[in-house]
Amino acid sequence: MQCVGGCPVQQLDVIVSKILDPNTVVIVSTAPAPRVALGEVFGESGNAQGKIVGFLKSIGVDYVFDTTFGADLTTICEARELLCRLDDDDHLPLLNSCCPAFVKFIQNFYPSLKNNISTTFTPIANMGTYIKAIFARELNVSPRQIFHIALTPCVAKKIEIKDAKFVLKNFDKNTKYSTFSKRLSANAIELLHKIKDNHVCDARCTPCKSVLQNGDAPIYLTDAVITTNELANLIKLSGLAYNEIQPLDCDKISGNAIQFGHSGGVVKSVCECAYYLTNGKRPPKTFFGLKQLNDYAYVANLKIGNHKIKVAKIDGLKNMEDFISNNDVKEYAFIEVMTCAGGCLGGTGQPKSADLTARKKLLLQNECYNSAEDTLAMSLINKNPNLFLNKPN
User: Fold this and answer.
1) Which of 179-183, 232-236, 260-264, 357-361 has the highest mean pLDDT?
2) What confidence score (pLDDT) does residue 203 get?
3) DSSP string covering 17-37, please?
4) What is the pTM of this model?
5) Which DSSP symbol is given to 204?
6) What span, in angstroms and rounded, lies between the C-alpha atoms of 95 and 81?
7) Chain CA centroid to CA 54, Å
8) What is the sign, positive or negative, of the torsion defined by CA atoms of 253, 29, 120, 327?
9) Secondary structure of 228-255 in the HEC alphabet?
10) Other C-beta atoms within 10 Å of 372: how many?
C-alpha cells in the first residue's frame, strides 16, 4: 500500500471528475468512526458529522448518507444468521465479516474456518446495495450513473470494495431510466478546482483509474473509499477553514448501530438484536457484559431463547492466532475480531491517537436503540431476504 503514503487523497482525479460530471449522482456514506476523529486533525473536539456533511455538500456531493444504516442491515442479517446457526448447530462460532483484514486472515491462514465467516455483507457493502439497488430506483436513474464513495477509518476497505462478490446482483441493463442532470454552484466548482490544483501525488502506485461502469462490466457496490485522513487532506486542499464549515444533517436515512465503530460493538449489537428478535423486546441493560479472559480476549455468557452461549471479542490478528491455539473455539457461538486496536476507532485511516477512550465516549454519548427497531431496515430485509447477503445470484 505504498500509494497510501505517497498520495494525500487516492482516486482524487476520478472523484473530482465524477462530482463535476452533470450526469453522475455522487453519494458518500459516512462510517461512525471518522466523525469522532476528524476534528483532532484541526485541533477541535466533538462529533464532526455535521462538518463532514457540510464540507461534502459544499464541494458538490449530491447525497450524504450515514453508514450506520448499513450497520443496521448487517446487524439484523447477522443476528438472524446467528439464530439459525444456533438452531442447526452449524459452523459455530460465527465470525464477523465486517473487518476485511480479518476475513483475509481467516481465508489465507485458517481455511478450515472460512465457512464460519458470516455471509452478511459489510455495512459499506450494504450501503452500496441500498444505494444502487433501491435508492437508484427511487431516483429513476441507472445504478451505472451513481458513484458511491465510502468514508471509512479503514485502509483495507480500499481492497474490499474490489472483491467480485461486492457487485450489484440481478441488474437489468435493458431497463429505461430518466436522465439525471445537475448544476453545481460556482463555489463548489471553485473548491473542486482548488483541490485538484493543490493536490500533489508522488505516484508510488498504479495511476488512479475509475471503475468501468459501462456496457457489461460489473457494477460495484462501492466505487471509491476515502479515509478520515484523506478527508482531512481534502479539506486542507480546498483552502476552507475547518471552523468555517457550516454543519449539515445527513440525507434521508441514518441508523442506530453506531457502536460498530468500537471494539466489541459488533458482537454486542448482534447479540442484543438476536435477543430482540427472539423475545420481541429489548434485552435488559445487564444482558451484555464482557469480562476479561486474558491480556487480549474478553468474553460473555448469554442466554438467547433456549440457547446458553459464550461470545468473545478480540483485537489483533496475532491475538486471534493465540486464541485459536490456546482455546477451543467451538465453545463459542460468536467471536468478533477487529484487526486494529480499539476497533475501527483506531483504524489505520484515522489520525493517530494515544487515547481511544475519548473517541469511544464521544461515539456513544447518545444512547442507541436496537437495530431491529429500524422499520425501514427491517422491511427492506423482509422484502429482499438475500439482497444483503454474500449469496450466489
Assistant:
1) 232-236
2) 62
3) HHHH-TT-EEEEEE-TGGGGT
4) 0.92
5) -
6) 11
7) 20
8) negative
9) HHHHHHHHHHHCCCHHHCCCCCCCCCCC
10) 23
Q: Please, which residues have CB within 8 angstroms of residue 40's CB and are 6 or more apart in sequence?
A: 351, 353
Mean pLDDT, residues 31-51 taken together: 94
Contact 370, 285 (CB under 8 A): no
Distance CA 297, CA 315 (A): 8
DSSP SS3 for 106: helix
State the DSSP string of 308-375: EEEEEEEESHHHHHHHHHHS-GGG-SEEEEESSTTGGGG-TTSPP-S-HHHHHHHHTSS----GGG-H
Set of cell numbers at residue 373: 427497531
**Mind listing the pLDDT tens digit for each residue in 164-195?**
889 998 777 777 788 788 899 999 999 999 99
Planar angle of CA 225, 168, 382, nearest 5 degrees: 110
User: What whole-number distance in Å separates Cα of residue 168 and Cα of residue 121?
Assistant: 12
Instruction: Tell me the DSSP string of 128-169.
Output: HHIIIIIIHHHHT--GGGEEEEEEES-TTHHHHTTSTTSB-S
Contact 171, 219 (CB under 8 A): yes
330 beta partners: none
> Cell for 265?
460493538
